[in-house]
Amino acid sequence: MNSKLAILGGEPAVKRPLGVFNAIGPEEKAAVVDFLDKGTVLSGFHGSARPSFFGGEQVQAFEAAWSARFKTKHSISVNSATSGLMAAMGAIGIGPGDEVIVPPYTMTATAVAPLIYGGIPVFVDIDPDYFCLDPVLVEKAITPATKAIIAVNLFGHPAELTRLRALADAKGLYLIEDNAQAVIAEEDGKLAGTIGHIGIYSLNVHKHIQVGEGGVCVTASDDLALRLQLIRNHGENVIDWLDVKELSNLVGFNYRMTEITAAMARAQLKKVDVLVERVERVCHALTAGLSDLPGLTPPKVRTGCRHNYYMWSARFDAAIIGTTREKFSQALEKEGFPNAGGYVRPIYQIPMFQRQIAIGKNGFPFNLVGKTYSEGLCLVTEKMHKKELLQFQPVSWDVDEDQVAMLIEAVRKVYQQAESI
Ligand SMILES: *Cc1c(COP(=O)(O)O)cnc(C)c1O
Which of 54, 95, 165, 288 has its CA 20 to 30 A from that of 149? Predict the structure, then answer.
C-alpha cells in the first residue's frame, strides 16, 4: 500500500507546501517606527573622544538587555558575527604565526577571522555524534604557537564547552565561542556563548533571532570588553582619552550597529524564547516520529545540553537504507520536504587553503608555519559532508502540526521505497 513516490510521478507527501517563516512581526515594526518618531539620528556612534564612542541610546539599551538575558557582564553589539569574530581575534591579540584551533565544519568566517591578523587556522576534526570539536584531538593539536581555540556550537548544539574551557585555562589559551547558530542553547545549565572568554552571536537573517545583519560579542572580562569596543569603533583615535596607551596596537574598524537595527534587535531579543521553542517543537516531533528507522539517526542531544536545532541534522547510512544520500535527498525534496545533504565542504578544501594564499601574493600567513590542508585531514568531517549528513533548516520554515506529520510521512515513504530510486 505504498503510494507512488513524487520523484516517480506520484503525489507529494507534503500536501500543503511549507511557507517561508518571517520572524519580524508587529513588535519589531513598532520598535522601528517609535524610534523614527522620536528622532532621526540613525547612528549614535562617534569615532572620537566622547561618551558616544560607546554607541547611541538604542545600541546601549540593546546591549544592556542582551547582558541581562544572557547573564553576562558585557555585551558589545557589532554589525555581523563575522565582524565579531574578527574583533575577538584582535581583542585576544592574535598576531602573525599564532595558531588558532578551529573545526573545519563551519561557516568560512570562523577560519578567516584569525587569518586577517596573520594567525593560522589549525583544523581539528569534529566528533561524529554532535558535529562539534573533538576535545581529545584539540589537546593533541596544541603546540607552543597555539593561542586560542574557536569552538563552534554547530547546528545549535553546544561543543564540549566546559571541558574546552578547562583545557584552555590549563594551557593558557583563549576559548572563543562561535555561537552564531546556538542562541540560548545550554550545557549543564550554562548558556552557550558565555562559557568561553568571548562568545559571538549572529543576528543575520538566517538565524533564530535576526535583524537582517547584526551580531553581539559577550565577555565577562572588563579588559576584553574594552578591546572589543576599541576595535569596533576606530579605537586608535581614543586611546589617549581613555588613558590606555598600552592598547595602541589595536587597529580599529567600523563594526558599529545602527540605531534602527538596535531598536529592532531589542524587540527580537524579547521573542528569543518563543522563536527557539517554535523550532524545538517541530524538531522534537520530527525526531520522535523518525527514531525507529535503522540507518537514519535523528540528531542526538548530549546529556545536560539544550539543542536549539538551527539545523535538524540526521545521519544517513546508505548501506542500511539501500540508496545514496543524494538520491534520498532528492526524492525527499520532491515529496515537499526541503532538505540538503552535507552542509558546507570542509573549510580547508576551499581554494584559499588549498593554494595557501590569503593576504598579498607570497602565501602570507601560511608561509610562517608549515601546515598542510590535504584531503583526509579531518576524516569525520569529510565523511559527514560527502556521505552521511542529511539536514533540514527549520528556522526558515513555517511548519504547523499537520505539516510536521506530513514531513514525517515523507521521510517514511521515501525510506520504505529507497531501493527503487
Ligand atoms: C552565520 C554564521 C556566521 C556569520 O554570521 P554573520 O552574522 O552572517 O556574519 C559565523 N559562524 C557561523 C557558524 C554561522 O552560522
Answer: 54
Distance of CA 107 to the CA centre of its chain: 7
CA dist 194 to 69, 86, 146, 161, 271, Å? 11, 18, 22, 9, 20
Q: How far is the CA of 26 from the centre of ligand 1 (A)?
A: 26
Structure confidence by residue, pLDDT tens digits, 181-201: 999 999 999 999 999 999 999
Q: Are residues 51 and 10 in the same domain?
A: no
Q: 126 with 252, same domain?
A: yes
How far apart are the CA of 3 and the centre of ligand 1, in A? 40
What is the number of other CB atoms lying within 10 angstroms of the CB of residue 372? 10
The percent helix, strand, coil of the chain (3-state, each to 5) is 40, 15, 45
Q: Are residues 103 and 177 in the same domain?
A: yes
Quickly count: other Cβ atoms within 10 Å of residue 345's Cβ. Answer: 14
Pair (263, 306) in one structural domain? no
Alpha helices for 219-317 (secondary structure H) = 222-232, 259-270, 272-289
- Give the span between the Cα atoms of 354 and 16, in whole angstroms: 44
Q: What are phi and psi of 375, to 5 degrees?
A: -50, 140
Distance 311 CA to ligand 1 centre (A): 14
Do 65 and 88 contact (CB within 8 A), yes or no? no
Question: SS3 letters for 228-241?
Answer: HHHHHECHHHCCCC
pLDDT for residue 1 is more than 60: no
Q: What is the 215 CA–ligand 1 centroid distance (Å)?
A: 9
Q: Which residue has a Cα nearest atom 6 of ligand 1? A: 81
In a domain, 107, yes or no: yes
Concatenate the DSSP letters of all residues of 265-278 into one string.
HHHHHHTHHHHHHH
- Here the CATH number for the domain that contains residue 405 is 3.90.1150.10
Q: Which three cell numbers stand for residue 319?
A: 548501506
Residues 107 and 154 in one domain: yes
Residue 292 has a CB neighbour count (10 Å cut-off) of 8
Residues with CB under 6 A from ligand 1: 80-82, 106-107, 109-110, 152, 178, 180-181, 202, 204, 215
Residues 252-300 have pLDDT tens digits of 999 999 999 999 999 999 999 999 999 999 999 999 999 999 999 999 9
Grouping H, G, I as helix, E, B as strand and the rest as coil, residue 349 is helix
Q: Are residues 221 and 233 in the same domain?
A: yes
Q: Strand, helix or coil at 292?
A: coil
Would 149 be classed as within a structural domain? yes
